[in-house]
Amino acid sequence: MIPPPPVVNSSMLVVVLLLAACGTPATGQEPKPPESALVGVTMPTTTSQRWLSDGENIKRDLESRGYRVDLQYAQNDVPSQAKQVESQIAAGAKLLIIASVDGSALTAQLRMAAEAGIPVIAYDQLLRGSPDGAAGPFNVELFAGSADDNNAAFFFNGAMSVLKPYIEDGKLVVRSGQTDYQAVTTLRWDGETARKRMEEIVTASYRRAKVDGVLSPYDGISLGILAALKNKGYGPASRS
Prior knowledge:
- The chain is an alpha/beta fold.
- It folds into 2 domains: 32-132, Response regulator (Rossmann fold, 3-Layer(aba) Sandwich); 135-234, Rossmann fold.
- It has 7 helices and 9 strands.
- It has helices spanning 49-64, 78-90, 107-115, 150-168, 181-184, 191-205, 219-231, and strands spanning 7-9, 13-15, 38-43, 68-73, 95-98, 120-122, 138-142, 172-173, 213-215.
- The strands form 2 sheets. A 5-stranded parallel beta sheet has the order 1-6-5-3-4, with helices on both faces. It has a 4-stranded mixed beta sheet with strand order 2-9-7-8, with helices on both faces.
- The longest helix has 19 residues, at 150-168.
């Protein structure tokens, strides 16, 4: 399996990092994570109910799947968050989820994670200044919101302003060929519509290849995409 780029913007991408097919069990059941798998989660502050809820929900969900979780809050202090991330790396975390206080202030910590082979999910707030990831190419597919919602075009065009150069130079490959906005919209932002389209794409374009990542602008669409990938044999990656 090609290692993923070190940082993924969670507001834009469904991370197949945790759904990458490393062999599907014959029973069809999801394999359990390694007993010692630690996930480091860092949130900005406890003074906002939003961050409290997000942190606890992430922790609860991961623990229900068998992971150990180190949840930290930085109290809006950049040096504190940097130390928290460094501590999680030193503790052997297999994944970092970071909602940054300052998205441009963790460059050194992101480099440390990359050198240790630890994937990073940028939760809600983009992490900037991250080191380059693996060379690729990576297979990706694109989804946008509903064509009758003006916001959908803004989201898609913003994402493509970053992704298009990588698609043009071959580092990212859209095997379905569906890159035009009208071709990738999802009517009413509907997860079931996204699921059906993703399954059709995998069937038609990924018989001898794997999906590495998917652009998705909305949780409902993301859940549909994840369901499609699971239906097509993708399961949680095991990282020792």
